[in-house]
Amino acid sequence: MAHIYKEEQSLEKAFILYMKYITLFVEKIPQHTEYKNCEPQEKALTKSNCKQVFPIAEELKTLLTEKYQKEFDVYLQQKTILEKKQQLEEEKRTEEQRQEWQRKLDEEKGRQLLELQQKLDKQIRDKREVREPSATSAESKVWPHVGQDLYDKQTPAPVVSSNADLPLVPSIDRSTKPSTLSFNDFQLDSYNTSRVIIPQRLIQRFLVSAQSNTNRNVETCAILCAQLANDVFTITQVIVTKQNGTADSCQMIAEEEIIPIQDRHGFTVVGWIHTHPTQNAFMSSIDLHTHWPYQQLLQESIAVVCAPKFQEVGVFSLTDPHGMQLIATCKLTGHHLHPEVPPIYERSSHVQFSDTIDVELIDLR
């Protein structure tokens, strides 16, 4: 599957799978107590595969590093441009506020000067009237309508407030200034969930194979296998392994028997399917623990639950990260309770049913 991702230029997904392979076969498996009992041929084959995978993973690492560096350079350029733009806008706002303050200051000074001039003019007129009363009276007799009318038409001096001081410098409002740009603003989603196509015939064929167990109120389970093409998983095989079932649980046995089939067909395991003979379609605590390793190995993995009594079919996934983390740390076995809020699992949003694709059911029981 990693090779397919590499060919389709899904470099992040390919690199993750190669690193999982290296970690598993170089670090984890050699520490297992049964490793010393493995056949020398198997050890040699694994060692040979690892030698092939290491340079591929290193090449992908280099390509991804270059890709991320280019993206980061673009981010820095955009960040610099945005900061420069914000700086220019801030300087423009500051200059506009300074000019507005200066305009108001000039207006206030002009008003005060006008008031002062009017006061001085009035004082001069008052003193002149005191010094020349006869002249004013004579003028009034000759031109009776001129003297008083002239003073009546003078613009009265406005009252000057004692608080008529110069205005304060206005404060600059920075409440609308954008916050500092973070890298998350440009971060890309590096691992998108691929679609999973489920053939409509899959459900019917599986229920037919499980009918005898369903009649006896015994659960039946099977493995879902898919082919990967164009970043889409299409389920093409359903493998019913040897198993032990009860009314509310089902345990696969001899799962290693599917390895030759997997090698022959080159498929990818994308989850599992099982029945609830007398209950609704939901995920019990046992189901959640059964599904966790599937989704841990492949995030697209699904759990299909068939409830023939109620004619229900549910397709579920553990919520990520909450559900995955909770089940990973839960040490309880059998049926037990989990906190319901926030949800541990949900209906899978990346699945699509198709009535044009056939599916093969392989029964190993």
TrEMBL record:
Transmembrane segments: none
Pfam families the UniProt entry points to: JAB, USP8_dimer
Annotated keywords: Coiled coil, Hydrolase, Metal-binding, Metalloprotease, Protease, Ubl conjugation pathway, Zinc
Domain MPN: 196-325
Keyword Metal-binding: yes
Keyword Lipid biosynthesis annotated: no
Superkingdom of the source species: Eukaryota
Family: Belongs to the peptidase M67C family.
Protein name stated in the entry: MPN domain-containing protein
Naturally occurring in which organism (per UniProt): Oppiella nova
